[in-house]
Amino acid sequence: MQEGIEKKLTNKHTQPTSMRILIYDFLASRQEALSLADIERLLPKADRTTIYRTLKTFEEKGIIHSIQEQLTTKYKLCGDACDEHTHKDWHLHLYCKICKQVTCQEDIQLTQPIASNFRIDEVRFFAKGICAKCLEETLQ
User: Fold this and answer.
1) Which of 8, 1, 3, 6 is nearest to 77 (CA)?
2) Percent helix, strand, coil in the chain (nearest 5)?
3) What is the pTM of this model?
């Protein structure tokens, strides 16, 4: 597992330190997007400043993408197609009004416009509603 993470980080031109491997592995284990405070709370061994710097490095290198949710930034791993120049996460980010989680709905995607005279580096496709899990619980 660690070797796979090291290779992914190296392929994104990022030095695979023990903290970066830990944070990558942690984010990979989560379905929902997480804020800095969430990560800090769930990884008590990690220092807030180190987590923040790691997240910023990951975002700059196309390893994670940030999702703005009101006044909070949450982070989720990118797909392999993202790089340090372009984030290709052209899918819906759903904020659930019940559980307060943001999840990537990769089955709902925008198609990238074909453009010859400009480059789109990032698209933010965000919706508020009720996630499948909460919706199922409300119907029971």
Assistant:
1) 8
2) 35, 25, 40
3) 0.74
